[in-house]
């Protein structure tokens, strides 16, 4: 990744290479913190200060334009020195994932005041803006608006956040022959409680993230999608929002 001093996003052990396909807003940071606590420098794919680096001009150098921990699989494959021996991922229901993203952008994201102001929009309108932004600029908001299927190769061992992270920790323990303790797993970047998501919102999410529903077995919402004035306004707003995000202004 141009302009950044972080190694490939992988867990490099003496006899194997393990890739954690980090889907944003699906518990990935908690697992990364556990891995760092146990393996230290062997977990070389994190740049938790990437957002600050981006705002201070890193956007001029980054290729691809997202943090190393949020590489989609196509970009990760191009970075890795060899195919990984194992890949794992944690995924989340797309509706709750998008609701969590909205809360995180409003309360916890280390962005600018303008970016937090944008997240003060009601969820329904914010969602429409974000979906339109993602169509213009898929890397927007550090790949947080990407379908999870973009991050997770078909061969990955997949866990669902709704089932808890213990299973992922047990799997990682077995693969690495290491005694990891899920009881000390940190709960990083909690987004708090959610707001109201309408059936129309769910229908839009189901269309935008159809690959996630097909791949990961979540029940797909069924509802009519009726376009309204807010959809047109969101499309108009998406262009300047995407431009500002590309330049580190959000």
Question: Could you walk me through the main structural features you see in this protein, from its secondary elements to its overall organization?
Answer:
It is a single chain. The chain is an alpha/beta fold. Helix content is about 45%, strand content about 5%. It contains 11 helices and 4 strands; from the N terminus they run E-E-H-H-H-E-H-H-H-H-E-H-H-H-H. The chain has helices at about 30-40, 50-55, 75-80, 95-105, 115-120, 125-135, 140-145, 165-175, 200-210, 210-215, 230-245; strands at about 10, 15-20, 85-90, 155-160. A hairpin with a 4-residue loop joins strand 1 and strand 2.
Helix/strand/pairing category = alpha/beta
Number of helix segments? 11
Straight-line N-to-C gap: 21 Å
Shape: globular
- The proportion of strand residues reads 5-15%
Poorly predicted residue ranges:
1-9
Oligomer: single chain
Largest sheet: 4 strands, mixed
The arrangement of helices and strands along the chain is: EEHHHEHHHHEHHHH
Mean pLDDT: 86
**Strand neighbour order, sheet with most strands:** 1-2-3-4
User: How much helix is in the residues?
Assistant: 40-55%
- Strand elements, count: 4
Rg (C-alpha, Å): 18 Å
């Amino acid at each position: 990744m141009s302009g950044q001093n972080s190694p490939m996003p992988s867990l490099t052990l003496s006899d194997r290479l393990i890739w954690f396909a980090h889907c944003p807003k699906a518990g990935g940071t908690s697992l990364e913190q556990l891995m760092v606590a146990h393996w230290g420098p062997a977990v070389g794919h994190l740049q938790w200060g990437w957002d600050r680096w981006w705002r201070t001009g890193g956007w001029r150098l980054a290729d691809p334009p997202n943090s190393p921990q949020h590489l989609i699989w196509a970009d990760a494959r191009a970075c890795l020195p060899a195919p990984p021996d194992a890949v794992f991922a944690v995924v989340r229901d797309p509706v709750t994932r998008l609701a969590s993203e909205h809360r995180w952008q409003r309360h916890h994201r280390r962005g600018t005041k303008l970016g937090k102001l944008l997240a003060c929009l009601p969820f329904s309108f914010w969602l429409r803006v974000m979906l339109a932004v993602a169509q213009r600029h898929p890397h927007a908001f550090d790949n947080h608006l990407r379908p999870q299927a973009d991050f997770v190769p078909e061969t990955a061992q997949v866990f669902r956040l709704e089932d808890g992270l213990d299973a992922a920790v047990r799997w990682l323990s077995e693969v690495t022959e290491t005694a990891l303790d899920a009881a000390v797993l940190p709960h990083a970047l909690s987004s708090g409680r959610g707001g109201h998501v309408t059936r129309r919102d769910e229908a839009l999410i189901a269309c935008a993230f159809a690959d996630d529903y097909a791949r990961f077995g979540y029940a797909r919402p069924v509802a009519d999608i009726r376009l309204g004035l807010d959809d047109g306004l969101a499309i108009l707003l998406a262009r300047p929002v995407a431009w500002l995000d590309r330049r580190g202004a959000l």
